[in-house]
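Inputs:
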Amino acid sequence: MATSKKKTKQSADTTQASGASKKAGGVRARVRAELTAEIKAAAGRQMAESGASSLSLRAIARELGMASSAIYRYFASRDELLTALIIDAYEDLADSIDAAVAEVDADDRHAQFAALARALRTWAVNNPHEYALIYGSPVPGYAAPQDTIASAARVPQALLVLLMGGHETTKPIPKNDLSTSLAGLIDYTERSIDVEALGQGVEVWAELFGLISLELFGHFTNTVTDPELFFEQAITRMASRVIDTTG
Amino acid sequence: MATSKKKTKQSADTTQASGASKKAGGVRARVRAELTAEIKAAAGRQMAESGASSLSLRAIARELGMASSAIYRYFASRDELLTALIIDAYEDLADSIDAAVAEVDADDRHAQFAALARALRTWAVNNPHEYALIYGSPVPGYAAPQDTIASAARVPQALLVLLMGGHETTKPIPKNDLSTSLAGLIDYTERSIDVEALGQGVEVWAELFGLISLELFGHFTNTVTDPELFFEQAITRMASRVIDTTG
DNA sequence: TGTACATCAGTGAACGCGCGTTCACTGATGTAC
DNA sequence: TGTACATCAGTGAACGCGCGTTCACTGATGTAC
């Protein structure tokens, strides 16, 4: 709006990247979507080689055989590309988990939890750099914008749904330390879940990420010899904690 | 040894950084140790601002008011400095934990575990970048050398000692999935600990790091409203798991 | 205690590199009449 | 169906930056006799 209009035609050039084309079905729009995907794919490949923080727009352009400046037709900046990758990672992980849980008998909640846990670890092992991108140390100088939050929430949401299945309540939320520390979560679930069960859920959630992070980031080397096997056994114990709790 | 000796005097220049001075008590050696510490301190300050992966020798030199090449009298490369920082972080954390545990009655193992857990989280909260450096996603392009392993081991060692106190055994190790997955750890403890207890120990260990990582890396925002309070409650439950198990 | 020599810390210039981002441009594709 | 114009994708040069590392050097500090 308040942009300077010194030059005649091309003054709107700068903010071009973010806006999609008008007609969703148009040829141009389709080609644009394809190239956007290709850029993200190349970025993913690069991340797999040297990690998220050394992701370089120039290297991506090189790989795709285009001028480095051309990337700016698709992403306004390196940060915007990073954001897109983060969202994609969350969405991909959430899709994997949802699909795995959906394949299991809805009544067998132990099995559902096991499916969830396995899907989480499998995705992490197969996409270690994407995992590090979203659950490892934050990329320096990058601040995740609001856009990522909705996608990020989809992942724990899957466990929350599981909890809801067995620990619904209409009782008033007790006023204690647990309800204080989990205030945000309690609001998020619209006060429909037993607080003790919610607490166990968060603990198990943490253990899942702890197990996966310790494994992926190399802290199980020479001690936990077979992390997959250990994970499998931990699943059983975690399932008990998260399913069998009584509020 | 096989280095080219084109020039007369200074040919041994290159490998100067790693070798300490001869006399430990000499003035030069003391000054050298001080400056080494100052470099590491500056590096720490820089890390606190922008993370470990953007650590720059030039920036450190600038902060200390010296030529960037002078750093090479103290550290042979950026990687060597990183290694030193990693070792320092492990050592500092292990010292904190050991000190905290030592302050508690040796017979009260619940209290000992609580002290350990609290010391771990407190250190992490106070040194978030050091924590990320050692327990977050690995710094791209950096491979931790053997030197770090001994220091790294000191941290879980503290929990192991706690476990040994209550779950010593001379029974033969059973041949099952658990003993297979934990083979490395079992060897490390010289087969003197109950395997079930060891498994619980690893799980609790993972939960501790999961809780801290999720908190520090921003995944508790808006859900776990008071992470410290929640951690405190989780400690009690984790202590039961790790102390009260019977093999 | 004094002198000759070796060692060491620190300098400043330079090499070679890669990066994000901007800019004015050319040509192709779409749109309105 | 054809023409005029606006939009868009992509180019290539350039700006300005910071980085790790090497090198030949100067001067100060330590060591051996």
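Chain A has two domains: 16-76, 89-247. Flag for discussion at group meeting.
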